[in-house]
Amino acid sequence: MEHDASAALARDGDIVAAISEERLSRIKGQWGYPWRALDECLRIAGIRRKDVAVFCAALNKFPAVYFRKTSWLRECSERWHRLRRRVIGKPEEVTITMTDFIREARRRRLILADLFDRERFRADGFEKAEVRFVDHHHAHAHSAARFSGFDEALAVTVDCVGACCVQDETETHTLESVFLQNLIPLSHTTSIWKDGCLRRIHLTDLNGSPGSFYGSVTEGLGFISPRHEGKVTGLAAWSKETRLDEPFRRVLSLSRDCTHFVCDQTQTRCDNISEARKAALHQAMKGVSREEVAGSAQRILEETVVGHVQWALQQTKLRKLALAGGVFGNVKLNQRLMELPEVDEVFVFPAMSDAGLAVAAGQIASGDSKSHRRQAGTGISNFKLPHVYWGPAFANEEIETVLRESGFRFERLPGKERAARAARFIADGGVLGLFQGRMEFGPRALGNRSILAAPVDAKINDELNRRLSRSEFMPFAPSVLMERCEEIFEHFRKGAHTAEFMTVTYTVKAPWRARIPAVVHVDGTARPQAVLRDKHLRFHDILKAYETLTGLPVVVNTSFNVHEEPIVCRPEEAVQALREKRIDALLIEDFWVAG
Question: Which residues in 154-183 are b (16+ Cβ under 10 Å) and which e?
């Protein structure tokens, strides 16, 4: 969706680069089309627009400039500009949503090629690129199933809404083949992943959207949807009151046959069910504490989604679960699913929101085209996602230039001393900014753009919240040596792989809660990043050195950004954080920078 504008570049099915537009524009939740990210991916790969063979996008958005301006498209563009100015006061590139196309297709038979301006597309440098689209929820399901490493699994996608093709969901579609009458908005799909192929068995339309339900609650609490749903999840742990459960259950529940989600708002007089849903929720929330609202919203979301997934697992006899879509950014929901007795293992694609569609679209178009599958005689190959370090990196020479211009004192450290210095600094109570290697893709900082602190005193949470201008009720996450995780967290093996990407919470075992209070939420859970030596040697070395000093294989790891700003991307942004005293020191590649 527009709030997760991202680009990815794939070659022969492998992801070469992936970046969210916000990291480059420095506008949190950047809307529009990801031109900066697209060109940065090309720069990393060492190629130009004219070298691109396939330009693939999920069935969601495309730049309006490439479509001939019929009257309805012009109206959509103007409305979009007005909305941009009203919301953030800074118009961006106009994009056309596929829901706009769906609406138009109700009155005349169209394919995308009828409206697409090929000459303008070529003039912008894409001289030989074939333009394709991929089904929105198929892309979500593909990202989860394909990168899970599972031979077979139940693949479930849940979000607010995305345009899907009701014909052959497994294919990418060229401009000539997408008939707009066949596009429908969906908020959920359940598919069987087997033999490298996805077969969709259940779906939910926009009316029963769990993402829309949770987003409406988020807005009703005064937060911004779709950016602050995590705040609702954090608040939910503070209340066990249930008086809102029934009113919320009328807005989101499981169908009687358990196949999809429904919204029962028959008593609400409103033509638009999304508005009816929002009105009913906001009415029920009046005069109720934000903690109680959040608690009921979380409970009903879990009850509904878990109910469907458990039923589907029982019906299919599958034992592994692959998840994607914005709703699975809800780490507590993911924990509930992981702990189901029907589940042996769970994987959540790290960029579970619409940002991940870029990765799926690029990978599908690059390595799994129709001709490739026909030639091979099989479905899509799968593998276990090794990492998401797909963003830009910066050489020591570039960084040294920035540091010399900054005026800060700095020194270059040899490898062993870097880890030892960082561990000692953290153990002594310092807040350390860590900037190294290629930037992470997705919402989590995983040791390359992170802020680290000791986990032994819960008061560090107040200090970090003050420095980073964050909410006082939000928990901080731990990074943990993989080899010690099973000792600390219950049911760890069921989500060991996905824990490498901070996509699920675990219940912290009782003996550890008092030892690492800074990373344990009020409900006794934590959202760990499991760190493996062979995947992140530098970060593992820091954790190992800290363990040697303190006996604890855990540090606080929070994203390297101030609240409402994107995670830092460039050295200049990391240095600015030091200048603003967000951190006490900075370890940036081989350099130690004192505050």
Answer: bbbbbbbbbbbbeeebbbbbbbebbbbebb
Contacts of 266 (CB under 8 A, 6+ apart): none
Q: What angle do CA 564, 569, 571 make, to 5 degrees?
A: 120
For 252, list phi and psi in degrees, rounded to 5. Answer: -145, 125
Element (H, E) at 309: helix 290-316
C-alpha to C-alpha distance for 229 and 238, rounded to whole angstroms: 15
Query: What pLDDT was estimated at residue 99?
Result: 55
Percentage of residues of the chain with pLDDT beyond 70: 86
CATH number of 396-594: 3.90.870.20
Query: Per-domain residue ranges for the chain?
Result: 396-594
Average pLDDT value for the chain: 88
pLDDT at 276: 84
Q: Rounded distance, CA 210 to CA 165, Å?
A: 20
53/366 Cα distance (integer angstroms)? 9
E strand map for 491-559? 506-507, 525-526, 529-531, 554-559
SS3 for 342-389, per residue? CCCEEEECCCCCCCHHHHHHHHHHHHCCHHHHHHHCCCCCCCECCCCC
| Nearest Cα residue to 226 out of 450, 459, 56, 30 | 30
Give the count of beta carbons closer than 10 Å to the beta carbon of residue 40: 22
Q: ∠409-543-388 over CA atoms, to 5°?
A: 90
CA atoms of 143 and 348, how far apart (whole Å): 9
As a whole number of angstroms, the distance between CA 287 and CA 156 comes to 36
- CA atoms of 545 and 565, how far apart (whole Å): 31
Note the pLDDT of residue 375: 35
In eight-state DSSP terms, residue 196 is T
Residue pLDDT, tens place only, 279-333: 999 999 999 999 999 999 999 999 999 999 999 999 999 999 999 999 999 999 9
Output phi, psi for 189, to 5 deg.
-140, 150
8 Å CB contact between 11 and 39: no
Asked if 403 contacts 591 with a C-beta cutoff of 8 angstroms, the reply is yes
Rounded-to-integer distance, Cα 320 and Cα 342, Å: 8
Q: Is 496 helix (H, G, I), strand (E, B) or coil?
A: coil
pLDDT tens track for 163-193:
787 655 556 777 777 666 567 889 999 999 9
